[in-house]
Amino acid sequence: MNHWVELDKRYFMDTGHRRLEVTLVRGEGARVWDDAGREYLDFIAGWAACSLGHCHPVIQEVIREQASRLILASLDVYTTPQIELAELLLSTSGLAKIFICNSGAEANEGAVKLARKYGKLHLSGAYEVISALKSFHGRTLAMVAATGKPEYQAPFTPLPEGFTNVPYNDIAALRAAVRERTCAILLEPIQGEGGVRIPSEHYLQEVRALCDERGILLILDEVQTGCGRTGTLWAHEYSGIRPDIMTVGKGLGGGVPIAAFLANERAACFGPGDHGSTYGGNPLCSAVAAAVLRFILKEDLVGHAARVGGDFRERLLALRGKWDIVKEVRGRGLLLAVEFTRPVALAMAQACCERGLLVNPIPPQTIRFMPPLIIGRSEVDQAMVILEGAINQMAQVAASSEGAR
């Protein structure tokens, strides 16, 4: 066993298996290197957080500059990087007010908290939030209740009350679940951890109409899908709607921990003392996030994600004609997934890793691709060669297993 792996297993709580036994020590662009000097293409990118790849010069420079000025200050005072980031996010989202925090889970907690305050003020004390099965909104206790995965919820019951989970992409189920105590609906525009599930064309429009009809808030979790990941700056743009509250994170920081929730004027009902965060909006991370978002916009990485991601998706779709083991390809931009006919996700990810490509397994049958937004076509070419080799290996194993029967 690798020395670092041994120490990790000794020191850390067993909250989840590191499914790829690789110890990374360096990264540059879309590539990383392990402690033995082996190179990998990184198509996980910190679960879509490393939007500009690893150690991008823009991020290095702003960290050096801001760290020499001011790293942290309390929210009792004003800091310019926080205000600059707020202006940039609000101007690109069309929303009115913002709170900057540290992680997607915190952003979703804050969004739910804001919706409950709205329900108390405007909906006769309504407090319940409806979310979707197979969703993912974070690991805090409340967000486990919001996340529609019974296997995540069972070890921690009783969960905080006020959350109802219904099937995704089912407007009838949503409509039936709305009650007098409902204050909001919380959805991902595309379910990421749920397997990169894209809703039907008019689903989000119907949800928006339902919220307007019942006077409740629509919260969209863009923590994974935002900041250009899907080929538009915000994934909900595909539906032509706007949420009342939106959460962002991951790719916003390009690798540093930062997130936010944004709201329109109607929903932005927090008052003094209602919310806070020691590190939220700190000058260092705010400066990095502002630089990352400006770079994404200036270099049209949104369009790049649409173009390169579209080509990547077409090449993945072609795999279905080569191997029966490939069941379905889903995704938009640079958030893509391949589902297999057999429970081979983990074995497929390990086979790719052995060949020099890091992909994210979503057991039992799906692997997910979230490369940096700066990914080049030649790197996609290399990834496809590795992926096809891994699929061919899995297909041969499957054929041998069938033959043995």
From TrEMBL:
Extract the coiled-coil ranges from the record: none
| Record protein name field | Acetylornithine aminotransferase
Reported EC number(s) for this entry are 2.6.1.11
The protein's annotated pathway? Amino-acid biosynthesis; L-arginine biosynthesis; N(2)-acetyl-L-ornithine from L-glutamate: step 4/4
Q: What else is known?
A: May also have succinyldiaminopimelate aminotransferase activity, thus carrying out the corresponding step in lysine biosynthesis.
Organism whose genome encodes this protein: Candidatus Methylomirabilis lanthanidiphila
A Pfam family name for this chain?
Aminotran_3
* The UniProt record lists the keyword Transmembrane helix: no
What is this protein's gene name?
Answer: argD
Cofactor: binding details: Binds 1 pyridoxal phosphate per subunit.
